[in-house]
Amino acid sequence: MSENFEPNVVAFLCNWCSYAGADLAGTSRIEYPSNLNVIRVMCSGRVNPMFVVNALQQGADGVLVSGCHPGDCHYMEGNFLARRRVALMRELLNFVGVDERRFNMSWVSASEGAKWRDVVKGVVDNLHEVGAFTEFPRKKIDW
Amino acid sequence: MKLNKDKLADFLAAIPGKTIFGPQLCGETLKFTAITKAGDLCLTANNTNVPPKSVVFPQTETMLRFEQWATDIKTAEPAGEIVLFGIKPCDARAMLIVDNVFSWGVEDPYYLTRRTNSTLVGLACLDPCVNCFCTSMGGGPTSTDGLDLLLTDLGNSYLLEVLTGKGEVLCQAAGKLLCEASGADKDAAKLLQEKAAVQIRRQIDPSGVQARLPALWESPVWEKISASCLGCGICTYLCPTCHCFDMQDETEGVESRRCRTWDSCMFSEYTLHASGHNPRPTRRERTRNRINHKFSYFVDKFKVIACVGCGRCINHCPVNIDILDILSKVGEDVL
Amino acid sequence: MSSKPKIGVYICHCGINIAKTVDVEELTKYAVKLPNVRVASDYSYMCSEPGQLMIREDIRKNGLNRVVVASCSPRMHELTFRKALVEAGLNPYYLEIANIREHCSWVHKDKQEATAKAKKLLQAAVAKVRFLEPLQEKEVDVGAAALVIGGGIAGIQASLDIANAGFKIYLVEKTPSIGGRMSQLDKTFPTLDCSACILTPKMVDAASHPNITLLTYSQVESITGYVGNFQVKVRKKARYVDFNKCTGCGLCAEECLLADRVKSEFNMGIGNRSAIYLPFPQAVPAKYSIDPHSCLFLTRGKCGKAPKCVEACPAGAVDFEQKDEIVEFKTGTVIVATGFDVFDAARKPEYGYSDYDNVLTGLEMERLISSSGPTGGKLVLGKGDGEYVPKEIAFIKCVGSRDKSTGNEYCSRVCCMYTAKLAHLVKDKLPEANVRIYYMDVRAFGKGFEEFYDRVRREGVRYIRGNPSEIFKRNGKLVIMVEDTLTGKPLEDEVDMVVLGVGLEPRRDAREVIDLLRLSQSSDRFFLEAHPKLAPVDTAIEGVYLAGCAQGPKDIPDTVAQAKGAASSALVLLSSGKVKVQAQISWVNEPNCRGCGYCVEICPYTAIELVLVNLMGHQVNVARVNGVLCKGCGACVAGCLSGSVQQKSFMDSQILPQIAALGGKL
Amino acid sequence: MPDFDKLRALAKETISRDDIKYLIGWRQGTYGYRTSPHFVRIPEDADQLIFSPLCSSNLATYLALAEKRPVPRGSQPDTRKVAILVKGCDSRAVVQQLVEQGIKREAVYVIGCPCEGVVDLRKLEEKYPHTLDRVGARWENGNVSLDLPSGNAVFPREEIVAGKCLTCRYPNPVIADVTLGENVEVSGSTAFEDINRFEVKSAQERWTFWRDKFNSCIRCYACRNVCPMCYCAECILDKQNPAWIQRSVNISENTAFQLARAFHLAGRCIECGECERVCPVEIPLSYLNRKLVKEVTEQFAFTPGVDPEAKPLLVGYRPNDKGDFIL
Amino acid sequence: MNTHPYIPNFATVQDTWYETYGDRCIKTFKVGFDDEEVRDSWTHLPGQCAMIGVLGTGESMISISCSPTEGKFLRFSVMRAGKVTKALHELEAGDKMTVRGPYGNNFPIDEWKGKNIITIGGGIGQAPLRPVIEYVRAKKSEYGELTVVYGARTSADLCFKGEFGELARIENTCYHLSVDVKEEGWPHYVGFVPALLMEVNPSPENTIAITCGPPIMINFVLQNLKKLNFPDDQIYTTLENRMKCGIGKCGRCNAGNLYVCKDGPVFSYATLKNVPEAFA
Question: Count of CB contacts below 8 A, B vs C?
């Protein structure tokens, strides 16, 4: 794979914990790779696993869904619902040969700016290893 | 003329500047795809799962390309010359039938360019499938309708019957690869062909169908037939004469394309108005339209039945909706 | 009507906070070229008044109908900019913020990288804002009344607070008298106030308060509606005594054929009452009622020649014809203060609670030792001739708490202190008695607790660390088998009496309340609060609050504090008279709904229900969102198979363009 | 296996009831080994009913597929019951539809048919191609006996039944108002050996495998339409606004379509294998579904379509659900 | 100038206005072709349609609601319903749409010279009738009486409201409007269009009746026209069906053996009465 491959990650963050955690990373000036772009949703429970398939189709190399730690969900249980959905979609993607490192989930609380950095770094580093996804994205195929 | 089978590869290689499509096994599916070598071909099998209409009328075809906010519209590259090698006579006949649609009134440039640029090398159907009924629909396992060249498998060689100038071009390109066919070869071929015709066991007389259909418009037979229909697109997608398509704009970033894809009159969205009204609201109306379209409307317009008897819709229907069964019911109900 | 999106993009420098790392000028140039963007401007501080003015003027001047601000986090200034839109006459929800500070300029160093990322974030915001729809912020009126379920100290306190603020209260209590568990206690720890002395005035206050309608011996039958508009049905059970005629003189009880023959619930079965009774002398209301389960006339249809109580009552209040009565009313909020049950000690058979009379629970001990109790406060065991004064007394703590075998992993929080208090009371009454307490840990965490614990030990109460494994009888004495875990020595302790420090459990009838209000339970089976830290009195159901031990074990001060918290939460709604409804809520595209009810199950706020609608003459189920209950999490949207449920401002048709913008490489 | 007389007698009795609208069963097909769903509306229709190892169709699909024609003003909709013959797997579909409120219990009359397995027609056609004459089949001592034009042939179960039947754990209807014949022995397991074997392949191998399969997909939607669990008024995958999946047929859209289809069946698939059976281009779709069945079984100990009172899998959670993948 | 049947021409929106408001509002677009050659060579007759669209969204078949006698521009009145019409509604003056056509047949208006014409329209169904009215109006001396019958659910749902007043001032021309339910200040008929038709009571003699509107209305209008003794070949209507190509290829617009896009949209009742699917 090309030396200068830079993965493109789409992340879905819940408003109350993870988005706030990422904000904290900002206010704390914690530096991390710029390959990840955030879509804010109110709760990780809003994330339809089909978003992940769609993101990969649209050209993302990886996807991250991040929510509150268990028990911290602003809406009580949205992150638990998300966990089940994500678990199954990950297995399914993995089964058809989509490297499971392309689809990640994390718990990041509003106080975990540093953890947010670690998560982003981890996801991006992993994707450097996994490489670009050429056969699935719409634009890459004969279109 | 005759072509020894060991020369097949050379014969194909000698065809100048044309992309050769032939039946090829893709996974478990037999369909017409571009081949690079003779070995890719799968000529012994029965009808391809997907009919060769997919070559001249691809399931997805880019019609126009444009960029957002630009006023510059590009059409797709014109198709090059192609050869459909090993096409079954029924599928070739189907193309003749479909030509009617794409050339009446305004001509469809995409389809017709491909058709003009295509040479159809037929392979006589010596071992018809169980549900073939081409002989009832005006064709036959060795029909030459629409073909440029017909091959008959004699075991070690193919007997070549040149039917058009396009066929002649291929033979000339092959030059010495071909040899003259003997009388015995011709007799052998004739015998095989006759045997094949006899092998076709499913038959129906379609002559009265068109006349009978209008009276059956409100007949309960349609409800009965369609009760088990799943509303899937198998019968129409795999039909060599079905030609309906949908047009959609697809956008990727600033680039857009307008493309067409096969559509099916068995889908409920097919006729669904934006208002929510659907003139064919249930499978009953849709099934009725499919049969009427093939055996009545099309005949009205183009004087030919839009069915070649390839048997694919019968072979692949998951719930055994059998077009011959329907036709015989159409007969019964009026009689 | 759909108007063409005309987007204004405003890029904030945030001084140098953004501009230092993101090439703002290039970003502005880039923005203009994005689809439907009419104007793009940058400014040093978009959130400042001149910045906002710029947006407002552009909206007016250029007919903008969508605004994207690329600035700091939406968590910071979303409201600021929404206000700016409103001031310019635009719907506030036509706004999208691209977070290019916290998520970009502050976390990336390379200017080129940061600029590239800012472009993407901006592009995604523009892609989304194009599809945003105007939303209306609605308010619903809040009925100026509250329902309080449970007449214990929590319910009484909450009722009084709300009533004092001038709102109507319906206080519903299941038993014939308010007072609850606290009224059963003798003294309260650690101050040793007389429980009744501090509680009774509050009970009387509640009963006489003009704003409080006291519904004792009543049960809530159903609650429908939502915050601000709860419709409540209460069943007032027949007392068979005319409430208005009864003077509480008690002559009836004296004459009752079953006088002193029915076990008294109040006294935990240690003392007896009659079939027509007052639960305890200070009961409020001081009105008698007939226990239909024991009354001879009601159970057998016959009581001597004629029921004695009827004859005895000078006011002619006894009325066997009385029927249950249904009372209906509306309230704006509900406070659940249904309290607790004590752990059923029979579930620890090794302690012999069911077998031996001299094994008591803490609450029984409470009654036994209380001066208003069946023994008049004399600490005696046995009856008649067998009466004796115990000398060797043991307490065992953590019975039914912190104990996986009973399914109660939690600490009940009060047992440490109430055992200490009871031990003190024993020492007070029987200074010669030898008192020891078997414990695993002592948790004296509250104000004055540690001091009290210390005092009790100084009074001679022994604390032995050990978890008794068995209690059996030998030679008329109870033998406690235990290992002293500090010395590691096994002990066989012979005593006259054992008091089990039973823990607190959710009420056995908690399920009824759950069904009534669709509340959730936490893993300990107590009612679940909306947030364990930040919303400890709220529930998932807006307008429904928790007070007291219904939410988890607590002592009296904590209960009163929570009751006051619940009351103040309720008062916020009641006094404003309105409650703002979320705008970014879910809604259902009914023609496409498959009626499977997935969303109904998913919704933690029970905001969605299935309703029958007519579809071309057929009755079909479709989901319908109650816009007042919905909190806008969107979990139902992701769970809907047909895509029929959508969340406003977070619709699939709004998020997918964002994904496309971010997924596609520039 | 019930004899046809008993089946037809029961069907006649059932259809004669006032509260039954129609009965769905199977009949002999128009040729070869084919069978077809059969709608019994009058007692005479029952004479064509059969139940044999060739009756693959999961008729529960038709409960959900029933088209609702407008009820003329002034008249009442026909709310009589639909009687339906179900095999074990089909009955799970009925239960799952009950769970998802697609049908009401009082709207169906379930006739259970304990099932030893159904024949995989592809296996049979390989052995005896070009069979036009109608072929009868029945179970005989655990073997499938076929009346072929060339004479009777007997095949051991393992050799001829569909893959789903070899792993079937519910050969006996889990719900039935009346049952035809005796219950059969349960032999399937939840070992998921096939899935496990595939999982150990490399990601590249797995992708290549599925890419080739998905490339063949012509998006005829037979897999979806035949599925007894797929009955949305408008499939989310057909929607154009927003378009989750574009109409064009290529590896990207096909993969996305199949992933979505499989995911939508997570915790709902009752393993009737119909999607795979009907696929005209032979994509091993039930393999994809079985992967999720495996996860649902192993991670959440959940089995859809067995308990009408159960809550669906993806509407709830357990606090201790597996979360080891979470960063 | 392109001759490719699928490549649309660009046209610039010159003016837009709303005919009706609400969820399914109707917006009228006045457009002119960008390419001069296209503008000059374009001819259409009343009844014909065009495929109009927005690049990147798609195309929709819309009847041309102006008469060629009005000038070198086109008018389309579009109801907001699906994806494409929603995108069209976003267009404003100066924006571009794409136009292919003209498609379909037309009212044989030139054959009707010397005859009386009555148009019976309902709701958006007035759009294909408007060019007939305008055409006849422009050549009034060549035609007999012109009677316009038009109704909608409410007065707010009537299209081309401003244009009827003018009609009254033309010789041998009259118009009758109706709304379904009584409204304050409504000076015209209250009731359904078929009933209004009976009130107007036109004579079939030398008269062509054209009707267009919702299917249910057409059905009753046809019945009433028969009651008024209009012969089948003096009754015309237009059909609409879902279309994709507009040129008889894509297959979906057929009503029986008729392709609405090519054989229609204009049909005489003499033709349609034999097509059972026509009024589905």
Answer: 5
**How far apart (Å, rounded) are the C-alpha atoms in residues A45 and A70?**
12
Question: Do C429 and C418 belong to one domain?
Answer: yes
Predicted local distance difference test score (pLDDT) of residue A1: 45
pLDDT at residue B333, rounded to an integer: 55
Question: Which residue ranges does chain E devote to CATH 3.40.50.80?
Answer: 109-238
CB contact under 8 A, C656 and A38: no
In this structure, the number of other CB atoms found within 10 A of the CB of residue B191 comes to: 10
Task: Mark which of C505, C536, C564 sits at the end of a domain.
Answer: C505
Same domain, C18 and C112: yes
**Residue E92 touches partner C, C-beta closer than 8 Å:** yes
Q: Is the ipTM of this complex over 0.85?
A: yes
Chain E residue nearest residue B247, CA to CA: E244
Q: Nearest CA of chain D to the CA of C652: how many Å?
A: 7
Residues of D in contact with A80 (CB under 8 A): 317-319, 321
Q: Which residues of D touch B283 (CB under 8 A)?
A: 67
pLDDT at C382: 85
Domain check: are C120 and C178 in the same one?
Answer: no
Instruction: Please give the structure tokens belonging to residue B116.
Output: 């003009």
Of D77, D244, D311, the CB nearest to C601: D311
- Please tell me if residue A6 touches chain D, with a CB cutoff of 8 Å: no
- Write out the residue range of the structural domain in which residue B247 sits: 206-334
Domain boundary among B167, B199, B231: B199
Contact partners, residue C627, CB within 8 Å, separation at least 6: C138, C581, C582, C585, C587, C607
Residues A1-42: pLDDT tens digits? 456 889 999 999 999 899 999 999 999 999 999 999 999 999
Whether the CB of D241 is below 8 Å from some CB of chain E: the reply is yes
Average of per-residue pLDDT across C81-107: 95
Min CA distance, D242 vs chain B (Å)?
12
Q: B304 burial class (0-12, 13-18, 19+ CB within 10 angstroms)? A: middle
Chain D residues whose beta carbon lies within 8 Å of the beta carbon of residue E86: 241
The predicted-structure confidence for B66-90, as pLDDT tens digits, reads as follows 987 777 899 888 778 999 999 999 9
Same domain membership, residue B237 and residue B127: no
How confident is the model over B22-42, as pLDDT tens digits? 999 988 889 999 998 888 899
C464 and C397 in a single domain? The answer is: yes
Which chains would you list as touching D if contact means 3+ CB atom pairs under 8 Å?
A, B, C, E
The mean of the pLDDT values for chain E is 92
Across the interface, whether the CB atoms of B69 and C664 are under 8 A apart is answered: no
Q: Pairing relation of β-strands D178-179 and D108-112?
A: parallel
- d(C-alpha B170, C-alpha E7), whole Å: 35
3-state secondary structure of B26: strand
Cβ within 8 Å, pair A26-C647: no
Give CA separation, B28 vs A127, B24, B84, in Å. Answer: 34, 10, 21
Note whether residue C454 is domain-resident: yes
**Which fold, E9-102?**
Elongation Factor Tu (Ef-tu); domain 3 (2.40.30)
Phi, psi of C486 (to 5 degrees): -80, -35
Residue of C nearest to E25 (CA): C1
3-state secondary structure C229-256: EEEEEEEECCCCECCCCCCCCCHHHHHC
Q: What is the CATH number of domain E109-238?
A: 3.40.50.80
Which residues does chain E have within 8 Å of residue D240's beta carbon, measured at their own beta carbons?
A: 83
pLDDT tens-place values along chain A, 143 residues long: 456 889 999 999 999 899 999 999 999 999 999 999 999 999 999 999 999 999 999 999 999 999 999 878 888 889 999 999 999 999 999 999 999 999 999 999 888 899 999 999 999 999 999 998 888 888 766 66
User: How many residues are there in chain E?
Assistant: 280
**Is any Cβ of chain C less than 8 angstroms from the Cβ of B105?**
no
